[in-house]
Amino acid sequence: MKNTTLKPNYLASLGKDIPAGLVVFLVALPLCLGISLASGAPLFAGIVTGVVGGLVVSWLSGSQLSVSGPAAGLTVIVLNGIETLQSYEAFLLAVVLAGVLQVALGFLKAGVIGLYFPSSVIKGMLAAIGLILILKQIPHFMGADDDFFGEMNFFQPDGRNTFSEIIHAFSAIQVGALIIGLISIAVLILWEQPFMKRIKLFKLVPGALIVVVGSVGINYMFIHYFPELAIAGTHLVNLPEISSIGALQNELRFPAFEQLTNPSLYVVAFTIAIIASLESLLSVEAVDKLDPHKRRTPNNRELKAQGVGNIIAGMLGGIPMTAVIVRSSANIAAGGKTKMSAFIHGVFLLLAVLFLAGFLNQVPLSALAAVLLMVGYKLTKPTLFKGQLKLGHEQFIPFVVTIVAILFTDLLVGILIGLAVGIFFILKANYKSPYFFHKEEHRDKETIRIKLSEHVSFLNKASIVLTLEKLPDNSHVIIDGANSEYIDYDVLEAIQEFKKTAHERGIFVEVLNIEEVQVLDMH
């Protein structure tokens, strides 16, 4: 049973939440920029969404550990939406309307859909994201890819795919970036060792902060002493520099409300609302599984929080947001305890835009790739695969199919494929248990008693129909619904159909404690 009564102590947790918020910020910054780039939106739009997700949605959400911001799963939808509406300002209005729809879905209690995704599919999603992070970050780790984020999809806009990008990376290694990447990963691994955690100073300072500051220092050393190793500007963080209030206003964009009469606007808004809601619900479900305290996120409250977030982000020029699993898992891996860590990441994003752009633009992307490689590993540890295998093939097969499908398509398509496989095993399990079958031998005729279970749904129809078809000829069959609180109409109809035709096989059917239904003649 999940613990829903644990009251968070925000002040007492600050020692954990501030370092975790810093780590999430370091992960979120390049993702906000990269997703904007991949979406065809202004670069600043992703930062706006990240700030709103951190400062606003963190408090409105019922989740203590999830982080909201621009989502990789929405890049294609954003790209197509801007193209369909022919202006970014019209698209912003669609984002606002999508937020209104999400709030409405929250009040309509549509969040329950998140509970219908099998655990094996959610765990498969986490493992797949871990593997994608590892595979996608290898080229950046080696300094071989100018586009830090690219896409989460298998097929990339540059014509390469996840694997061909890695092969290409080995022929385009930037030695300086690789050295910084290797040092960064070594520091992060060292920081995870038990003996390091016993030293108070190292417990307070996150390894990711050491990696970021250290990587800037190493690159300065390269520039002055080993210029051939100096990292090219294309493989450094690239944040817009805001030098005044006027410059900030120039970066912000606002919705075009005159587009309210455009029918295409509502199609785009509805698409964003549905996909963003589904992705958020899946993410918080996954975060709840990772939460050491097993706290349960209220799904309807999450839909409302995401809706308000999208309304504000759209009004200020931001791209759509969801609860995002990469940043959320980085938060948990860094030791975040309460929603304060997500809020602090938003504060850092805002401060970075206003005051720290000059310093952050010196940070090598290979150092940030090292941070994401560690997050990816924690999401897809070998123990996760072993644990799923021990649960049996009904859990392991949907888990593996979800991973493979996400790796070779994208997040939502992969989840839907995994869900289809999961449903197959659910149907198979339902097929086995809708009734109790008892056979009695009598001198004149074989008597078979079928006692239906407490709840008989349409999922059980196939099992019952096949059982009735296989009954021996010239038998006496008693179908008893005395134990049943609910029998689906489809099943009642199947029983009536069988009763009508059973005499042709010499079967005498006795139906007890089951109401008769009218069976329509389809001939």
Automatic annotation (TrEMBL):
Domain of life the protein comes from: Bacteria
Protein's membrane topology: Multi-pass membrane protein
Keyword terms, alphabetized: Membrane, Transmembrane, Transmembrane helix
Places the protein is found: Membrane
Coarse class of the protein's main subcellular location: membrane
InterPro entries: SLC26A/SulP_dom, SLC26A/SulP_fam, STAS_dom
Annotated ranges, domain STAS: 450-523
GO biological process annotation, one example: transmembrane transport
GO cellular component: membrane
Record field: transmembrane: 20-38, 43-61, 90-108, 115-135, 166-189, 201-223, 265-287, 308-330, 342-375, 396-427
Protein's name according to its UniProt entry: MFS superfamily sulfate permease-like transporter
Source species of the chain: Pontibacter ramchanderi
Species lineage: Bacteria, Pseudomonadati, Bacteroidota, Cytophagia, Cytophagales
